[in-house]
From TrEMBL:
Keywords: Cell cycle, Cell division. Prevents the cell division inhibition by proteins MinC and MinD at internal division sites while permitting inhibition at polar sites. This ensures cell division at the proper site by restricting the formation of a division septum at the midpoint of the long axis of the cell. This is Cell division topological specificity factor. One of its GO terms (biological process) is regulation of division septum assembly. NCBIfam families: minE, PRK00296.1. It comes from the Bacteria. Signal peptide: none annotated. Belongs to the MinE family. InterPro entries: MinE, MinE_sf. GO terms for molecular function: identical protein binding. The keyword Cell cycle applies. The lineage of its organism: Bacteria, Pseudomonadati, Pseudomonadota, Gammaproteobacteria, Lysobacterales. The gene is minE. It comes from Pseudomarimonas arenosa.
Amino acid sequence: MALFDFLRAKKNTASIAKERLRIIVAQERSTRGGPDYLPELQRELLALIKKYVHVDADAVKVDLVKDGEHDVLDISVSLPERGEGHG
């Protein structure tokens, strides 16, 4: 029976890898159709926020989303817990 457990583990690993690939492809599709300035805007926002709070590079997300007829700039910043990011 240990052989079957080994095969099941591979299937689970394969499904995890498949899900990760799906996420990467979805992210690539969303950024491919976006304006060229979004990556630079994200870098500049990160630099500005770092002047006041210590955050990681992945703490700032900038996306362009459709809201009916309008394009909306969606900016998300994950701030550290209180007391952790002052510096």
